[in-house]
Each structure stands twice: as C-alpha cells, then as structure tokens.
Amino acid sequence: MAKRILTLNQISVLGLERLPRDSYEIASEFAHPDAILLRSHKLQADDIADSVLGIARAGAGVNNIPVVECTRRGIPVFNTPGANANAVKELVAAGLLLGSRGILEGSDYVDTLAGVTDKAELNRTLEAQKKQFKGSELYGKRLGVVGLGAIGSLVAEMALTLGMEVMGYDPALSVDAAWRLPSEVKKADTLSALFSRCDYISLHLPVLDSTRDLVNSELLGAMQPHACLLNFARQEIVDEAALVGALDKKQLRKYIADFPSPALIGRKDVILTPHIGASTDEAEDNCAVMAVEQLRDFLENGNIRNS
Ligand code: MLT
User: Fold this and answer.
1) To which protein family does this belong (predicted)?
2) pTM, 2 dp
C-alpha cells in the first residue's frame, strides 16, 4: 500500500519528486498519515495522528515541532542542518554591509528626490547631502561568531575573505567542526570576552533551554558602543527587554535581525528582515531533498540519519 505523506507547508518540487508516485501519496490533508513533512508550520502534539511514524522538517531548527512529545511517542524527527547554511551566510554578509555602510539610509534619501528632473540639480543636492551616509569598512574589523556549526563556520570563512578578524565561541564545538574551522579563527574563552572585544557579533545558535535569552543585559552591556549585533539564528536567543534597554542606553550601535518584533519595528538603530535567511530557491530545494531522502530512508529501510 502507498505510504501517505502529509505536507503542512509548500515543499519544493525537487524534493517531492523524490517520492515515487507508485509508493507514496502526498496531500495537505490525511486522516491517517504515515509521515509528516513540513517547514515552519507550528505543529502541536495533539495534531500528530497515532499513525505517524516519522516527521521531517525541511529546515534546520526544530523549535516548531514538539520534539519531547515525539521522542516520548517514539516518532523520530528529522531536520536538514547545513542544507540552507549558504543562504543564511549570504544574508549575514548583507547584514554586515547594511550595518557598516549607509546603504538603506542613502537609498531612502534618494527616494525623497523623486520628482527632481534636472540632473545637475540632483547631483548638487546629492553632493551636499552624502556626507551623512558615510560608513566604515569591514576590512580589519573583528567579527565574533557565536555558534560554530554549519552556518557559523561558513559565516566565519566569509568574514575572513572580507579581511575581517574572526573570533569564535561555541561551548559545544564538535571535533569535526573544529577541524573544518579555518585556523585564523581565534577562540574566545568566554562569551563576555567575545562581546567586549568585537565590532560585529553574529549569533548562530539553536533555541534550547540553555540558549534562550542567552544574550542578556550583562552581555549587551559588555559591547562597545560602536558595535553591531546580528541575529539570523532565532529571536528567543536575545532577551528583548534587555536589548531595547541596551539600545536606548546606546550600549551598541545597531541590532540587525531576521525576526521582526513589535518592540523593535521602526527604530532607527534596528534593521529587520522578515525571516528570509533560508528563503532562496536553492536553499528550499536543498532542504526539501535532504528532508525527503531522510524520510524515505527511514520509512523504507528503518534508518535514522540526520544528513
Ligand atoms: C531554519 O530553521 O532552517 C531557518 O531558520 C529557516 C526556516 O525557518 O525554515
């Protein structure tokens, strides 16, 4: 009998094509699915039918899945670490550039000149105004990378190619990851050493009990006033009330994050994108293919792997 795969989000065709039609049925509604395939749908324990054997997320984080309850019920949960790492790395590169140069402010200003038709007048106005959009270079600045897994290590490599110094911190660094890390990455002994010594700090941690609100008023207070904090990992890692307090006190220059939140929207010292770190065609294809392959290997051979 064909296995029923319940899809709770749109999954890239490249991944779905790996489920042979004679062996699998795919639908967004099934009373008794054999497996669930999803991206960001917030899955509640009660919504997981007794027939479900496995759940696969086409994405890295699994904080939208009740993993503890799944483990209790013996349902393996698969994710796709690394499959969207390049997409996130590239958005972090954009975040660094937005933090160092007056790109957004300059572009907003140019928009205010819509309607000026005389080129000479336009140039005169821009020449007089452009001083206010002056930035500084990333070259020679120090980036602190917190979390040196699939994404953090790519971010570290990228920053080195821009001529930045890189300092890394990861208390859970695996031996494999440590080997892959470029030797130029200096290890910080403590998080507060990293926060106090870096011009830019980029977070690349999952949300766990140990990482929730990890970036608190103490760490924010250790930052240099010109420094920028980038969060393309998860909103919950930063204590939001502490962040607002630190921004108000000008303990850091900018917060650049992929998670809009009412307390932060509209602030001049904050740049927010709508959680688009993994929103590229390539990342969606990679994640879907990896998720489907793991799910098939499990459903057909009983193998449990996470890569
Ligand atoms: C991930 O967990 O893979 C990224 O945050 C993107 C997403 O939520 O899909």
Assistant:
1) Belongs to the D-isomer specific 2-hydroxyacid dehydrogenase family.
2) 0.94
